[in-house]
Fold:
Amino acid sequence: MAKDTKNNKDVKNKKHFFKDFKAELKKVIWPTPSQLANKTLAVIVIVLITAAIVFVLDVIFDLLNQNGINRLKSNIKNKVVVENSVNNTEDSLENAIDVNAVEDESSVENAQ
Structure:
């Protein structure tokens, strides 16, 4: 008997839910077909404009990356290579000057 009353309550609750649901749907103000078309068109236009803006920004940032950052990296690498070669040349010159100074001193000592 307890199951019967529980089942009856479930059925009543379901019927009550659907009646309330139907009543609420009747309260909704549905758009007219022209309003629906206008709002749909507005949404599509806004989405297309947003997509175009994102596309343009993506292209701009990609070009900046290729032409700006990559060029900057290559310039830095070239600068490091040039500095290293300048330092190596300076070291070579200092060593050559030291060798010449030692040879000059030894030639002066030999002459005396």
